[in-house]
C-alpha cells in the first residue's frame, strides 16, 4: 500500500482525472462536503476508473521496480555495470567482464551466515532423508562397531563424517554445501566416493555446481567413523554419475557427465492463437552487430529493458557476431556465434519474457499467410530511435518492429535508451549471466586450487603500449615491478592466479620463484578436445567444434579472479595510472 501511494503521484499525470479526486476522498470528505457529494454522484463511474488507475499504477510499479526480491540495490548494480560498459569503454578491452551474477547483491538473510555451525545445518534439505538415517544408524552402529570390519559406504555414519569434514575444511573457502548424494564405494575397501552440490559465496547467482571426491575412512573409537584422507577436486569418479544410474562402478576409466542441469533449449511459441495473443518487440540488427561485446550487452539490455517497459516479449537473435578484436591472432569478425556460448540462455528465459528470432519469424510468416485480410497480424514499424518508448506505450499492435537502417551511430540499439527514455527504461542487468558451461570451467580451475588462492589482474596489451594515455602502466606491470609489488602484498608460496591479457606465457616467470603461479593456459585441457565443454558446445553448434575464443578467455579469467581470497588490481594497486587514461581517476572514484 505504501508503494502504491508513493508511485501514484507519478501516475496521476497519465491517468484519467477522476482517480485523483476519488482516492484521497477519505481525508478530503470532512473538510469539503461538496466534493463528498460529488464523489457520491459519480462514485460508480469513478470506481471503474479507479480500477483502471490501480492497473496503471501496477504497470508503473512493475516497470520501475526490479521484480526479484533479492535484488536489494538495483541502483548500485546499474551504476557499477554502467561504469564498466559505458560507451567510452566500448573499445574491446582486456579488462574484466562483470555480468549480472557478479554484481547483484545477494539477500544476506538467505545465506547461512555462521559457517562454523553444525555440519548438517545447510540451508537446503539434504537429499538423504535424515529421519530414516537415524533409525538405521543405531542398527548399523550395533552391528558394525567392529573396528576390523571394512567401512560400508551406505552406512549413514559415513555421510555424517564426510559432512562434518567438509564443513570444517571448506567453509573458510567460501563454499556453501547444498546437498549430498549417498556415498558409493571407491576403488578399494575403506574408500568411499561422495558427490555433493555447492555454491560459492563469491558468486552471487544461485547456480549450483557439483563436486565428487574420494574419501578414506576408518572406524574410530566409540563406534565413530573418521575421515583419514580426502582426494582432490572431482576425484571421486565413482560418484560422478547421478545416483539412479548405477552401472559397473568398477570400470577404471573415469566417467564424466555433462552438466545435466543446463536446459537452454529454444522455447517454442505454440499455437497460432497463442502467438496472436502475445505482444512483441522486435529489433532488427543494427550498427551494434560485430561491435565489442560490451556494446552488445549495453544495447541488448536496452532492448530488453524497453520490452519490459512496454510489457512486451522481446525477440532475441541468438546468432551473434564476435568482434575480431577478441581474437587478435585471427583478426576478423566472426558471425554465427551462438549467444549460448557466452551467456546463460536458461537464466534469460527465466528472468525475462523472450522469444527466439528464427522461431518468431517462422511463426509470424506462417500465421500471417494463413490469416485472411482483416485478421492479419498487426505490425507497427518504427523506423528511427527518435520515436521514444513512451510514445509506443499505448500502441496496440501485436508486433512493434524497430528498424535500425540509418548510418552509424544512428543505428545503434542503445540510442533508444538515451535522453528522456533513460528515466523510464531500466536495463535488466540481472538477466545477463555468463554461460553455465563457462562457469563450470571456472569452478574446475578454482577447485583445482582448492579455492585457496590469491589473484592479480595484470592489464597490458594496447593500454601498456599507449604511453601518452597510460604513462606508467608498462613499467608498473614489468616482471620486476610485479615481483616487487606482489611480494609486499601476498605471502610467499601461495597459489597465485594471474588474470591477464598479456599473450606471452613466460612473461610472469620471475614470479615463479615466489609463488605457485597459475595462468589460464595451464588449464587448456578444460576446453580441449576431450573436455565436457568441447562436447557440449559442439552439440550446440550443430556438430562443429567451437574454438575457445578471446571473449571466453576474459570471461573465465574474470570469474576466477573474483573468487580469489586476495585480489590485486592493476589500476589502484599496481599502478597509479587511471583506468581510462590520464586524469580520469577522479571520475572513477566519484562513481
Ligand atoms: C502484460 O501483458 C500480458 C500479456 O501480454 C498481460 O496478461 C498482462 O496483464 C500485462 N500486464 C500489465 C500490467 O499490463
Ligand atoms: C558517449 O557518452 C558521452 C557522455 O558520456 C556522450 O556525450 C556521447 O554522446 C556518447 N556517445 C555516443 C555515441 O552515444
Ligand atoms: C531477504 O528476503 C526476505 C524474503 O525473501 C525479505 O523478507 C528480506 O527483507 C530480504 N532482505 C533484504 C536485505 O533484502
Ligand atoms: C557461530 O556459531 C558458533 C557456535 O555454533 C558460535 O560460537 C559463534 O560465535 C558463531 N559465530 C557467529 C559469527 O555468529
Ligand atoms: C552395506 O549396508 C547396506 C545396508 O545398510 C547393505 O545393504 C549392504 O549389503 C552393505 N554392504 C556391505 C559390503 O556390507
Ligand atoms: C568414548 O566415549 C567415552 C565415554 O562416552 C569418552 O570418555 C571418550 O572420550 C570417547 N572417546 C572418543 C575418542 O570420543
Ligand atoms: C527445458 O525448458 C523448457 C522450457 O524452456 C521445457 O519446456 C523443457 O521441458 C525443458 N527440458 C528439460 C529436459 O527439462
Ligand atoms: C565427448 O564425446 C565423445 C564422443 O561422443 C566421447 O567419446 C567422450 O567421452 C566425450 N567426452 C566427455 C568429456 O564427455
Ligand atoms: C588495492 O587498492 C584498493 C584501493 O586503493 C585498496 O582498497 C585495496 O586494499 C588494495 N588491495 C590490495 C590487495 O592491496
From TrEMBL:
<feature type="region of interest" description="Disordered">
    <location>
        <begin position="1"/>
        <end position="27"/>
    </location>
</feature>
<feature type="region of interest" description="Disordered">
    <location>
        <begin position="113"/>
        <end position="150"/>
    </location>
</feature>
<feature type="compositionally biased region" description="Low complexity">
    <location>
        <begin position="113"/>
        <end position="135"/>
    </location>
</feature>
<feature type="domain" description="DUF7075">
    <location>
        <begin position="273"/>
        <end position="570"/>
    </location>
</feature>
<protein>
    <recommendedName>
        <fullName>O-fucosyltransferase family protein</fullName>
    </recommendedName>
</protein>
<dbReference type="Pfam" id="PF23269">
    <property type="entry name" value="DUF7074"/>
</dbReference>
<feature type="transmembrane region" description="Helical">
    <location>
        <begin position="41"/>
        <end position="64"/>
    </location>
</feature>
<dbReference type="InterPro" id="IPR055503">
    <property type="entry name" value="DUF7075"/>
</dbReference>
<keyword id="KW-0472">Membrane</keyword>
<feature type="domain" description="DUF7074">
    <location>
        <begin position="148"/>
        <end position="235"/>
    </location>
</feature>
<keyword id="KW-0812">Transmembrane</keyword>
<feature type="region of interest" description="Disordered">
    <location>
        <begin position="234"/>
        <end position="263"/>
    </location>
</feature>
<dbReference type="InterPro" id="IPR055502">
    <property type="entry name" value="DUF7074"/>
</dbReference>
<keyword id="KW-1133">Transmembrane helix</keyword>
<dbReference type="Pfam" id="PF23272">
    <property type="entry name" value="DUF7075"/>
</dbReference>
<dbReference type="GO" id="GO:0005794">
    <property type="term" value="C:Golgi apparatus"/>
</dbReference>
Amino acid at each position: 500500500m505504501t508503494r502504491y501511494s508513493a508511485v501514484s503521484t507519478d501516475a496521476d499525470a497519465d491517468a484519467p482525472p477522476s482517480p485523483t479526486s476519488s482516492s484521497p476522498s477519505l481525508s478530503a470528505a470532512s473538510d469539503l462536503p461538496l466534493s463528498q457529494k460529488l464523489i457520491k454522484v459519480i462514485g460508480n463511474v469513478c470506481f471503474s476508473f479507479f480500477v483502471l488507475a490501480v492497473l496503471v499504477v501496477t504497470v508503473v510499479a512493475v516497470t520501475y521496480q526490479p521484480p526479484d526480491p533479492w535484488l536489494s540495490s538495483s541502483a548500485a548494480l546499474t551504476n557499477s555495470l554502467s561504469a564498466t560498459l559505458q560507451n567510452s569503454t566500448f573499445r574491446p578491452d582486456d579488462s574484466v567482464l562483470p555480468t549480472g551474477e557478479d554484481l547483484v547483491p545477494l539477500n544476506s538473510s538467505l545465506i547461512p551466515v555462521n559457517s562454523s555451525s553444525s555440519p548438517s545445518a545447510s540451508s537446503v534439505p539434504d537429499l538423504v532423508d535424515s529421519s530414516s538415517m537415524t533409525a538405521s544408524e543405531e542398527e548399523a552402529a550395533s552391528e558394525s562397531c567392529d573396528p576390523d570390519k571394512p567401512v560400508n559406504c551406505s552406512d549413514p555414519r559415513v555421510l555424517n563424517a564426510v559432512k562434518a569434514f567438509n564443513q570444517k575444511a571448506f567453509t573458510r573457502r567460501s563454499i556453501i554445501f547444498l546437498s549430498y548424494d549417498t556415498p558409493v564405494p571407491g576403488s578399494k575397501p575403506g574408500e568411499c566416493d561422495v558427490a555433493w552440490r555447492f555454491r560459492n559465496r563469491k558468486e552471487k547467482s544461485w547456480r549450483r555446481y557439483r563436486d565428487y571426491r574420494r574419501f578414506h575412512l576408518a572406524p574410530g573409537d566409540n563406534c565413530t567413523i573418521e575421515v583419514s584422507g580426502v582426494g582432490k577436486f572431482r576425484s571421486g569418479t565413482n560418484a560422478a554419475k547421478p545416483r539412479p544410474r548405477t552401472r559397473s562402478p568398477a570400470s577404471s576409466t573415469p566417467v564424466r557427465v555433462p552438466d545435466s542441469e543446463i536446459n537452454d533449449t529454444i522455447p517454442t511459441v505454440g499455437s497460432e492463437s497463442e502467438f496472436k495473443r502475445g505482444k512483441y518487440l522486435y529489433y532488427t540488427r543494427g550498427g551494434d552487430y560485430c561491435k565489442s561485446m560490451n556494446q552488445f550487452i549495453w544495447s541488448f539490455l536496452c532492448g530488453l529493458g524497453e520490452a519490459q517497459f512496454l510489457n512486451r516479449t522481446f525477440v532475441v537473435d541468438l546468432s551473434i557476431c564476435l568482434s575480431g578484436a577478441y581474437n587478435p591472432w585471427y583478426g576478423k569478425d566472426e558471425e554465427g556465434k551462438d549467444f549460448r556460448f557466452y551467456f546463460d540462455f536458461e537464466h534469460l528465459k527465466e528472468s525475462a519474457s523472450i522469444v527466439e528470432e528464427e522461431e518468431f519469424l517462422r511463426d509470424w510468416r506462417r500465421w500471417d499467410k494463413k490469416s485472411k485480410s482483416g485478421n492479419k497480424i498487426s505490425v507497427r514499424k518504427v523506423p528511427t530511435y527518435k520515436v521514444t518508448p513512451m510514445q509506443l506505450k499505448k500502441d496496440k499492435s501485436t508486433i512493434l518492429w524497430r528498424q535500425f537502417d540509418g548510418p552509424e551511430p544512428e543505428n545503434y540499439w542503445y540510442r533508444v535508451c538515451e535522453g528522456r527514455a533513460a528515466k523510464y527504461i531500466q536495463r535488466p542487468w540481472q538477466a545477463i549471466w555468463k554461460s553455465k558451461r563457462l562457469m563450470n570451467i571456472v569452478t574446475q580451475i578454482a577447485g583445482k586450487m582448492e579455492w585457496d588462492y590469491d589473484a592479480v589482474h595484470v592489464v597490458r596489451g594496447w593500454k601498456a603500449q599507449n604511453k601518452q594515455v597510460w604513462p606508467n602502466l608498462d613499467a608498473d606491470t614489468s616482471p620486476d615491478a610485479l615481483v616487487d609489488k606482489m611480494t609486499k602484498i601476498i605471502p610467499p608460496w601461495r597459489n597465485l592466479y594471474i588474470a591477464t591479457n598479456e599473450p606471452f606465457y613466460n612473461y610472469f616467470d620471475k614470479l615463479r620463484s615466489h609463488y605457485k603461479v597459475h595462468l589460464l593456459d595451464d588449464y587448456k585441457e578444460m576446453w580441449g578436445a576431450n573436455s565436457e565443454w568441447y562436447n557440449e558446445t559442439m552439440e550446440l553448434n550443430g556438430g562443429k567444434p567451437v574454438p575457445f575464443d578471446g571473449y571466453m578467455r576474459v570471461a573465465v579469467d574474470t570469474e576466477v579472479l573474483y573468487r580469489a581470497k586476495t585480489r590485486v588490481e592493476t589500476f589502484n594497486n599496481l599502478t597509479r595510472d587511471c583506468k581510462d587514461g590520464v586524469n580520469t581517476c577522479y571520475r572513477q572514484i566519484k562513481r
